[in-house]
Amino acid sequence: MTPMLRTITGPAVADFRDRVRRPAYVVILAAAVALGYVAVPDSDAKWMIMQVGDHRGVYHSAYVGMVTALASGLWIMLGGFYIVRNSVERDRSTRVGQLVAATSLRTTAYMAGKFLSNLMLLSSMLGVLAITALVMQLARGESYDVDLYALWQPFFLVALPLAALTAACALLFETLPVLRTGFGNIVWFCVWLVIATVGQGPGQLLGGTGVYEVARSMYDDMVAQRIDMTGSFSLGLTYLDKPLGTFTWDGFTPTATYLLGRIALLLLAVAVAVLPALWFGRFDPARTWQRRERTPQPESAAGAFQPVFIDEVAGQSPASTRPAAILRTRPEPGGVTARIWAGEIRILLKGVPWWWWLGAAFLVLLGITAPLHGTSRVMLPLAWIWPIIIWSRLGTQRHEYAVETVLGAYPAVRRRMLAEWGRD
Question: How far apart are CA 383 and CA 366, in angstroms?
């Protein structure tokens, strides 16, 4: 292994191991298993993930692998993005970035390592989904003839390029000042909607999501079997009024053009991942963008926060050591829950930019003056989406402001939780 490759893979593997040791990773894998179950429902189920008109394929290896891979590819593009988009921010908040800035590590190598770590995390989810697909084929019992190549081929052809593109875009968003905020979450959701819908059509750049060729292959097999197909191809959770008919799909044989498109998508993901090296400061305060960030300053003797517990006997701390702020061991009586709730509201609204308030007032004004039909159909979804920039901070402010220890010492846990729920 070359020194350059070792420089990239070493930190990537370490970062990946740190992520998989967290309890949230177990939840991620459980969600992957649930997705694999939903993708291959029972024959009399009232829902379906993928269908061709009023039919679905027989649950053999090729069909089960393809439907699971297609569903997982689109799901990872959405949910996986929000899972892996905190790799750079974690280095910034834990001040590991200061150590990185002091080393001779190249910015390109740092970005490549983060991209590889993101891809490893998403690929581990794909691995769990691949195993789940095998279990679901045997559990449904329509075909016990297992073909591992046909079962797992779609995960490499369809899902893996989409996961790589997601890992790269998450890294790109983290290095751009505007997109690494809650606004970036909204932007990616809109991007995902465009890719998930437009990317399924014919003639898309690099083959789009790779769905069109698969759907065309299924359609050709149905025509060869003289099955009357009414309706169109559908990929997404759909409610069924009656069970679907079945057809036998011979599997997907990719063409050279299709393979080149998948490879090009992987190369595009690598290019997007290393692109931020052109402007990312690698946590170096001497770089322009890093100087604009609010970095924590060393605590001075006058401004340092020194919480001191009140002496329960004397009722106060000595005058010579009395700090500017005092952390009490018990809440004062009278309106405790209301004060906590008011404090949570102030913290939530702290730092909200003026343009957000202007946009909120504009939406409220339109909501009052717009007719019930027409404009309100557009304004109502916008009014739902607009607060996401603020709501995205809910549940993370303890970690954001590093006050877990202080809140953990507060005795009225139930009141604190009630205030947080009331704020939400």
Answer: 10
